[in-house]
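hey can u check if this looks right to u? its 195 residues, i copy pasted from the old doc so theres a chance i mangled smth
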Amino acid sequence: MLLAYLGALAGHSTIAQAAADPALAALARQFMLCEQAPTLALSGAELRGTVDELMRRFRNPAIRHDMTRVGRNGSDKLLPRVVAAMSDNIAARRPTPAAVLLIAAWIRWFDVARSGDAVMRLIDTRAEALAEPAAVTDPHRRAELFLARTDIFGAVPDRPRVQRAVGDALAELGRDGVAEVVRRRLLPEFEGSTR
């Protein structure tokens, strides 16, 4: 999902293209190793091997992971695939910069998908219900309205802090573009990490 939404915002039309983007690849590795891994029961070596294999698979242009197929129905996928681990991390006081940015990219996609040259179509079971909050121009108010949807996000711990972070990320995506926003969230050990 991270590669789909951020990759589509960056203009990539496939997961392979997004995974070949050095900044996005580094953020995907960081997300898997620092934000998803603490919630899994895998050894360090097993985890690194799994992440390396996933990144090789994602970069393979022969495996055509279409952005629309991967990104469709994000409102159904966010809680089990992103927010559950993010909530565990927040409770354990671990940072969640990639999860926050993924959520912001998903929300931002509601704007971009309306443009005629969008590389990913917006297919979501709640698209109609989310049209009104998606039309709100203030990024912090928009983040507040989206994150209030417990059917999508559940009970996010420390919701006001998460709303601020998502609102900040939305503002940055609209102002600075994907590459710069991703770069700001990369931990030093992941900068240039594309394996």
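The mean pLDDT is 92.
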